[in-house]
Amino acid sequence: MKKKKFDFGPYLYLLPAFIIILVFRLIPIVLSFIVSFFEWTVTGAGDFIGFDNYVHMMHDKEFWQSLVNTFYLVIFVVPISLVLSLFFANLLNGIKKLKSFFRSVYFVPTVTSMVAISIVWKIIFNQQSGLANYFLEKIGLDPLGWLAESRGIFQLLFGSMGIEIPTWAGGPSLALFSIIIVTIWKGLGYNTIIYLAGLQNIPNVYYEAADIDGAGKIKQFFRITWPLISPTTYYVLMMTTIVTFQVFSQIYLMTGPPVGGPLGTTKVIVYFLFDKGFGESNNLSYASAIALVLFAIILGLTMLQKKLEKKVHY
After folding, report:
1. 48 and 38 Cβ atoms separated by less than 8 Å
2. For the purposes of burial, counting CB atoms within 10 Å of the CB of 204, is it exposed (0-12), middle (13-18) or buried (19 or more)?
3. Distance (Å, rounded) from C-alpha 57 to C-alpha 67?
4. Strand pairing of 44-48 and 38-41?
5. Which SS3 state, helix, strand or coil, does residue 96 take?
6. pTM for the whole thing?
7. Are the CB atoms for 73 and 179 separated by under 8 Å?
8. Higher-confidence residue: 180 or 304?
9. Across all residues in the chain, what is the average pLDDT?
10. Residues 6+ apart with CB under 8 A from 143
11. Interval 28-58: pLDDT, tens
12. Residue 131 belongs to what H/E stretch?
């Protein structure tokens, strides 16, 4: 029997992607790990310092504040994005006319430059002449500080009712909440289109059978729509979580001076990393240590979300 020759063809197709991942992902991760154990600035490598960067990080209040700010961002952005995206996808799925027009309108923020978006929203949130305060005044509410307000949103809400709550329970600052609004708005179109694709893959016969059985719209949603779009929800959940942890541009362009203000309440972990590595201190080794911690957090959350895959109906 003639021995079959080994086919290199499939591996050649994979080779370009493998080289890109190796050069731009795997090698930088390994180098960051090495750099974090040395005194390393833009001028080059210094002495071996072992775990000093990691020990310093554990006692760095600025690091912990940026981590808390990042978690606030993720906790608000991810669930709100999922709910709003699914809601708008359902609306788009139900319309009969001008489908392409409305889908394009929802997708416009996704393809718009983050720089342009940040500048426009910074003008909207301007304390003196912004559109946000204009509408608040029109409905009889006091204007807000938006990007200049360091107090937490729950602190402001309960404070307006005469109820005082401790600072630790105040929630994200209004400045960070303004960033949350922009982040949700920016990603809404992409997630909506993904959900719309998931909804359109559900065969109509299920809904026809449910109508015959007398099931209402709410029951149809939870018994048919929700289980059958679970793969889409799983994908959107994972991607939105990862992307939200990496938020940088809107912080850099909309906050400050100094960037990350007021009082550091909008400084997220990626900007903190950038500031340590390329700011005044030029401490690349400390920035590498922070990057590895961020990598570990995202990897841990992704592995945790992977367990949810058992409930996904493929």
Report:
1. yes
2. exposed
3. 11
4. antiparallel
5. coil
6. 0.88
7. yes
8. 180
9. 89
10. 127, 133, 136, 137
11. 999 999 999 998 887 888 888 989 999 999 9
12. helix 131-138
